[in-house]
Design brief:
This protein is an alpha/beta fold. It has 21 helices and eight strands. The strands form two sheets. The protein has a six-stranded mixed β-sheet with strand order 5-4-3-8-6-7. Strands 1-2 form a two-stranded parallel sheet. Helix 13 crosses helix 14 and helix 14 packs antiparallel against helix 15. It is globular. It starts with a helix and ends in a 10-residue tail after the last helix.
């Protein structure tokens, strides 16, 4: 807490692992109480911890150093499992072998409020920091296979970014071990932590949800507003590490209330603004447009998106992606490719819930469950009616958004219309760099979000032709075409 206050005052903090001498002295002290030590270090992609500890271990015959290939509470899960195995008097080589297998099933990721702190430490590139700051995005940090980097980028309010991150932390193709999930955080209010717990419970069941303040190192490297979801994937072997978790550890409301609460969560001010807009329309007797759409819960839609403008953008994305998603689902259904079908219906379930199409989302959930359970009879009985409802919603949205676009065009032609700011050279450079990175990773979601964000700006004439060409390639998911147009960091054309 002191370190966070220090950082929030604009001061810098530097973290580093112990040196070889410190590790050697530590191992020597611990060996007075043990026959053998197993030391679990954090990923080499973010620290020299493993290399230094390994070097110190050479001074002993009974010290084994393991690279967890992750960090924070994910490494803590390995510690708990190792302790459980040691209690069973399992030989050291077998414990080490088991940990090497278990670490492949660890899931370790974080969402970061700003890349400022990571850029200072050299953990993200200056270019990525530039695009993140220019567009006000929330990056996601993923650590897997001893590699760390930006896994996804979310735009919008803090609430929207947090919610999207939480959903992405639980992919459809994996089943978490239900023993425990850790939520490791830096300077997040208790009300927000409670909300995070509720969102997780909507997606996955865990016997224990443990909130853990992040270490000083993570706090200084990632900054306030960061939190991570850390757990391991279910297998046919149970370690029962839940037996280590006490009520004091769990994220109960009483536990969270011990933390100093702020006057509002990071997103309450937006909700208050939405409420004011609704109250004003209610007084005039006018029903908000988003409450007039069949198949959609208007209140849920506006709460999920944060504002009317944000909801319009989300609805447009939903509508634009409908033809491709519909074709994919029908293709997988026809070919009885139930694996890919389940993944796609899961994605549709999430996007339907985001726009407030709760009934459609619930039906998608049942179809997804049937896919996971191999209940093809249920899928065949319900798939076509579901798709008809899905496509009917698309028609309704097309009419709503077309009417809205017509109004905006009329306003744009009026003398009092507010002009969009011109995207300057710095912003365009940042946008191109972000699009280049996203195209290289074939990340269509990030590409869509960057292009959507730039709709609030006027593209300068000198960039219009190039920008339109990039948008055209993006619409066709032609990533190689985008890379050819965007070229390398120096502006040269790609040879790939």
């Amino acid at each position: 807490n002191e370190l966070v206050r220090y950082i929030n005052d604009g001061k810098n903090a530097v973290s580093s692992p112990p040196d070889v001498k410190s590790y050697t002295e530590f191992f020597a002290r611990q060996l007075k109480k043990a026959h053998h030590l197993i030391h679990i270090s954090i990923t080499t992609s973010m620290s020299d911890d493993y290399r230094i500890a390994y070097e110190a271990a050479k001074s002993f015959d009974n010290v084994t150093v393991i690279n967890s290939e992750c960090l924070s509470s994910a490494a803590g899960i390995l510690v708990l499992i190792a302790h459980k195995l040691a209690q069973q008097n399992i030989p050291v080589p077998e414990i080490v072998k088991e940990l090497e297998n278990v670490k492949q099933r660890l899931r370790c990721s974080f969402v970061i409020d700003t890349t400022e702190f990571m850029a200072k430490k050299g953990l993200v590139s200056p270019g990525l920091d530039k695009i993140a700051r220019a567009l006000g995005v929330h990056p996601g940090l993923r650590i897997k296979d001893d590699k760390s980097g930006i896994g996804s980028i979310w735009m919008g309010s803090t609430e929207i970014a947090y919610k999207r991150y939480i959903h992405s932390a639980f992919p459809v193709d994996i089943i978490p071990d239900s023993d425990v999930v850790f939520v490791t955080y830096v300077d997040i209010p208790s009300d927000t932590l409670k909300w995070i717990k509720e969102e997780i419970s909507k997606i996955a069941y865990f016997e224990h949800v443990v909130f853990q303040q992040a270490s000083a190192a993570i706090s200084s490297n990632c900054g306030p507003g960061t939190f991570g979801i850390l757990y391991f994937v279910k297998s046919n072997k149970s370690y029962n590490i839940a037996s280590y978790i006490t009520e004091e550890d769990e994220g109960t409301d009483e536990f969270l209330d011990r933390y100093e609460e702020t006057e509002e969560t990071p997103y309450e001010s937006e909700e208050e603004e939405v409420t004011k807009e609704e109250d004003a329309k209610a007084e005039s007797g006018e029903l908000p447009w988003y409450k007039k759409i069949d198949f959609i819960d208007g209140d849920a839609a506006i709460n999920n998106s944060g504002s009317e403008d944000a909801l319009k953008a989300v609805l447009k994305l939903f509508l634009d992606s409908l033809p491709a998603k519909s074709a994919e689902l029908k293709g997988f259904y026809s070919s009885e490719n139930w694996g890919d079908y389940t993944i796609k219906i899961h994605a549709l379930k999430s996007s339907a819930r985001l726009i407030g199409a709760t009934e459609l989302s619930d039906k998608a959930q049942k179809l997804e469950n049937a896919g996971k359970e191999g209940d093809t009879d249920y899928i065949r009985d319900n798939f076509e009616p579901f798709m008809a409802e899905y496509e009917e919603l698309g028609k309704l949205l097309s009419g709503v958004l077309s009417d809205d676009a017509g109004k905006e065009e009329t306003e744009d032609n009026g003398e009092s219309a507010e002009e969009k700011p011109v995207a300057d050279e710095y912003l365009m450079e940042s946008v191109y760099e972000g699009l280049r990175d996203a195209a290289d990773a074939m990340d269509s979601n990030t590409i869509e979000e960057i292009l959507k964000e730039l709709e609030d700006y006027t593209i300068p004439g000198s960039e219009r032709e190039k920008y339109d060409a990039v948008r055209e390639k993006a619409a066709k998911y032609d990533y190689y075409g985008m890379l050819e147009l965007l070229g390398d960091m120096n502006g040269n054309n790609s040879q790939n």
